[in-house]
Amino acid sequence: MTVTKTRVVVQADINVDKSEVIANIKSALARDLKPFLGHEYRKGIWAVAAGGPSLKDSIQKLRAFKRKKGAKVVACGGAYRYLLDHGVVADYHIILDAKPGNVRFVEKTHPKTKFLIASQVNPAVFDELQRQGRDIVLWHCGLTTVPEAIETVKEVCGDTIPWISVVGGCSVGLHALTIGWLSGYKRYELFGFDSSYSSEDKTAHHPYPQERANSFQRLIVDCQGKEFVTAVWMIGQVQDFGKWLEMYHQPGFRIKIHGDGFLKHAVCAWGENGWNTDVYHVARIIDKGVQVKSAVVEDKEYTLDELQKIKGELEGNAA
């Protein structure tokens, strides 16, 4: 990962060993679950709830979309339990992350929810859902970082088991959009899609407790004159969202991002300036609440470790 004057260049990676991903896929395929194959066209609203901090303030609006407009509510990862605890039963719960600890996402579920679980997800998640007798649909992530994953699916499924690859960038939220697109939806309402920390609490990037919540290197980006506290992986989401829009946008397509996060401002700026325009740049690096200039100059690139060293030198000079 490198930081430049105009952007953070994110090299996608996974948070578990590749061999674990392959083993998880083989385990999932051995369960004889219904495969996700998409649909030609469906009317209505695909309302996706990701885990950004603005979900807390927009949950009433999400509830109204479900009750008054019949929207299909789609919860991503940990957002499912948060919605459930606040009286919103998601129609779909999508999980992508392969970490073993994510079984906590499904410890409390509702029988009306359909669970769209990626084949790379840890077997403990499938075990728990099957123990509860829940409706599980299996889908396959088109991981560019683990080409062996899709090769494993091809090998196991052969010509007898139908399957499709879902390509959606670096986050479960983007894959949820692709699943909606493959299901024929053209109207999307996005909640908790911020790619930035809370404007009130610069350490909160979810409205609920999240493991490793305070272990990320935080950055401040300037997007068209407005500053946001974010992290490298969040900037990766913004970059991939732009790519997603370029790839999947079609006639009749409508998408609205609720909240006031970094992603919304970047997308609005792209709409005015073109998708390939740099509409934000890294302004400062934050560490332990201290803001210092990042010394990102000209077109020179620095790794995050190098920037951390520069930060220390700047603090030493200021002492």
Topology overview:
Blueprint (H helix, E strand, L loop, with lengths): L1 E2 L4 E2 L8 H12 L4 E2 L9 E5 L5 H15 L2 E5 L2 H7 L6 E4 L18 E5 L4 H9 L3 E7 L5 H11 L7 E2 L5 H11 L4 E5 L26 E6 L2 E6 H17 L5 E4 L4 H12 L6 E8 L2 E4 L8 E2 H15 L1
Parallel strand pairs: 3-8, 4-5, 4-10, 5-6, 6-7, 7-8, 8-9, 10-13
Antiparallel strand pairs: 1-2, 1-16, 11-12, 11-14, 14-15
Helix pairs in contact: 1-5, 7-8
What is this entry, summarized?
By secondary structure, this protein is an alpha/beta fold. It has nine helices and 16 strands. It has one domain.
- Helical run tally: 9
Cα separation of the termini = 29 Å
Instruction: Please tell me how large the radius of gyration is.
Output: 20 Å
What is the mean predicted local confidence, pLDDT? 82
Task: Please identify the structural class as seen in this structure.
Answer: alpha/beta
Oligomer designation: single chain
Strand content: 15-25%
Instruction: Determine the fraction of residues in helical runs and give it as a percent range.
Output: 25-40%
How many separate domains make up the residues?
Answer: 1
